[in-house]
Amino acid sequence: MTLSTETPQRGAPESATRRADTASDGADRAGWRALATQPLLVLAGLLAFAVWRVNATLTETEARQLGWAALWRSTREHLLLTVTAAVIVLALAVPLGIALTRAPLRRMSPLVIGVANTGQAAPAIGLFVLLATWLGFGFGTTVVALVLYAALPVLRNTMVGLQGVDPRLVEAGRGMGMSAAAVLFRVELPLAVPVVLSGVRTALVLLVGTATLATFINGGGLGVLINTGITLSLDSLLVSGAVLVALLALAVDWLGRVVEHVARPKGL
Amino acid sequence: MWDYVLERRELIAFQAFQHVSLVVQCVLLGTVIALALAVLVYRSPAATALANGVSAVGLTIPAFALLGILLAPFGFGITPAVIAVTFYAALPVLRNAVVGLAGVDRSLVESARGIGMSRSAVLFRVELPLAWPVVLAGIRISTQMVMGIAAIAAYVLGPGLGGLIFSGLSRLGGANALNSTLVGTIAIVLLALVLDLLLVLAGRLTTPRGIRV
Amino acid sequence: MSETTTPETPASDAAVPQRRVSGVAIRLDGVTKHYPGQDRPAVDDVDLEIPAGETVMFVGPSGCGKTTLLKMLNRLIEPSGGRIHLDGEDVTDQDPDKLRRRIGYVIQAGGLFPHMTVATNIGLVPRMLGWDKPRTATRVDELLDLVGLDPAVYRDRYPRELSGGQQQRVGVARALAADPPVLLMDEPFGAVDPVTRLRLQDELLRIQEELGKTIVFVTHDFDEAVKLGDRIVVFDIGARVVQYDTPDAILASPAEEYVADFVGAGATLKQLTLTRVGDVELEQVTTAAVGTDAAAAVAAARAAGQDFVVVLDERGRPISWPTLAELGRATTVPATVDPRLPVVGVRSTLNDALDTMLAASQGGVVVTGRREALAGVLKVEAVMAAIRRSRAEVAG
């Protein structure tokens, strides 16, 4: 009785180990399988687009805008906007999130979260236009607007992730003589990684989508295709732009999921 | 800015009403669709996974892109706006409804069946009421999100406060351009907060007292 | 066999430990904790001497300040007044991180870091102290062995792959990693089931027998305090020390009505929890190693007038106790592990032994000593006789 509840290792340690291993292997495989469908969807979409593009009869304007080089330039602009904003968001929001969960600033965190949540209700397009009246049109303004818009999910998830770490583990770390910094880097941040990364992925997807609005303030990107399509009533342009942005968002989301899957600390 | 608001209060009020009316109707429609879908799928793990996949993928599609795609078949006007806003409103509710229904304690369902309740009675008397707080959380997320999306919908000539923002954009540098944009943006933020408050209130009133937290 | 079946003589007088001592003394001088905004101090001017190498139990109602006092020992909570001395050295103003590396700390459920393997968890403090990898690895295996977990099996597991009791063992191993002289334990066994708790208590007694650390242990379970403690401190609100004495003395003469209430009714029967299984004469039984001739074992048992045989595995640990009829059906002694075999350690109390028998619905328990090797068998009759004796003593 005592033995069975307390020390299953004596019965058959190997089988117990194997069971645990196959269980986690199984979860792992299921995780990868789920991750496999999304890129297939993206590839199928790209393929369909390419087939349509090769076979479609286009007007001269359309053909110029939908040339492979032009498409690639728009996509690159779009990605550049997204990546620049994402890097700045990471560099600002993660340290800020950490700072707001440390003792000196902890009391301010509900206030910051409240303000940020309210800010999130602001329509992105309003933010773009307001910033443009202040900073003028162009790439820089677009990046500022994107950063403001995408910082919240990263900030919030950093804080939520850190607050979600069992305080007893922090105490255990301090209790065994780890410094505050050691506890932060070796215990709190690794345990918060899944939540933080899911915030980063949310932000990335938000960035890809919001960057389509850059066209309104001359920021470039794939939104230009959609906008031109709308203003000139060229359905082929606007659908191409929309499809490519959607595929890009899906691809970025997938990349985020892969990173989350790989970076998730083992043992959780 | 006050002068601007006072001067045009009727127009602004009308656009605000249109904006809220679009959002509220689309959220209602989206909620009904999402609940129906959730009820259809929640008993089957495969269908549940599919529904979760659809809501996750759907939420990654940029609103501006979807509006563009809808323009091709439907043209300018209210139809693409309603479809797009309803689409985005339904997704968070779908995700939460599936989670909420799956989270209902199986033993409660069994005991309800045990006392002779029919399948649909179990759904309407036990499962949906218990899942309601989670569903409502989804509705709140939806509402906040589509308030902003509805602003973009104004670009395809949908109704609402987005019109103020876009008219500001088109007259940038000109008189009242800033006022127009600012009023549109702030009005949307305020209305979003008011709607959220109303939803919290609705939650208090519609959540069974026994499971209120 | 003869060596392991001899019951170990426990240190009967706890105040004079006969075991090896590697711990150091702790002295508290007027230690106080006053939280801003509260009228009464959480801990009010406590003086306490904790002798080297002893296990001192802090008991008292929740909110009495016992945990606060414990956490002031490793300065997780900074005292607002008073001095703390470790081994005669005033450590009140020492760098807390350095201080804590010299004090092991065990909390409920072990406080293991879920994203690190068992080995990484245990090796944290040695690595912080600058040990190299091979030395740390050796130490980790040594400690796993000490707490009764096979290093080869458990070294690379993650905490969630362990049972609650195993996690708690790893927690103890981690606290002992850098061989600190002092171990602080904050209700460590509060979250495990009663049977596992009993087992972990036995393990702690055994480890303490081997190591002789100074242990300060917070619990709200008076039975646990009586079982594990060399001395018990009974606290009242504000960490007022109501009584500080050996378990027998507290049970025999509670200092105040408050202590008597806390000790609870039936204090005389609680004397039972003072008697260790090892104090009672154990029945020596016929044993058989796995894989040996079954018939020979049956014959030996018959000759000794016994109707069962205890089967031992290759490390001398009991795994089952078949009746002669059951064993007679086999040709060689089977290696089957009986999951319902009732087992207690020699340092268990008679109370534990009785509980285990009742839980297993058996008339006796198998008793194990060092490294879980067989020490003998305790029958229910022997427990009853001990109860009668202790009643007679109290009455007389």
Automatic annotation (TrEMBL), chain A:
Biased composition (Basic and acidic residues): 16-25
Segments for region (Disordered): 1-25
Predominant localisation class: membrane
Matching InterPro entries: ABC_transp_perm/SBD, MetI-like, MetI-like_sf
Protein's membrane topology: Multi-pass membrane protein
One Gene Ontology term from the biological process aspect of the record: glycine betaine transport
Subcellular localization, as worded in the UniProt entry: Cell membrane; Membrane
Keyword Lipid metabolism: no
CDD domains given in the database record: TM_PBP2
GO cellular component: plasma membrane
Keyword tRNA processing belongs to the record: no
Domain ABC transmembrane type-1, chain residue ranges per copy: 75-256
Keyword terms, alphabetized: Membrane, Transmembrane, Transmembrane helix, Transport
Transmembrane portions of the chain: 39-58, 78-100, 121-152, 172-197, 204-226, 238-256
Family: Belongs to the binding-protein-dependent transport system permease family.
The protein's name: Osmoprotectant transport system permease protein
Species name: Geodermatophilus pulveris
UniProtKB/TrEMBL annotation, chain B:
A Pfam family hit: BPD_transp_1
Cellular-component GO terms for this entry: plasma membrane
InterPro entries (alphabetical): ABC_transp_perm/SBD (IPR051204), MetI-like (IPR000515), MetI-like_sf (IPR035906)
Domain ABC transmembrane type-1 as annotated: residue spans: 16-199
Protein's cellular compartments: Cell membrane; Membrane
Family: Belongs to the binding-protein-dependent transport system permease family.
Protein name as annotated: Osmoprotectant transport system permease protein
Automatic annotation (TrEMBL), chain C:
SMART domains named in the record: AAA (SM00382)
Protein origin, superkingdom: Bacteria
Coiled-coil stretches: none
EC number: 7.6.2.9
Enzyme kind, highest EC tier: translocase
Entry's Gene Ontology molecular function annotations: ABC-type quaternary ammonium compound transporting activity; ATP binding; ATP hydrolysis activity
Family under the similarity heading: Belongs to the ABC transporter superfamily.
Protein name: ABC-type quaternary amine transporter
Source organism of the structure: Geodermatophilus pulveris
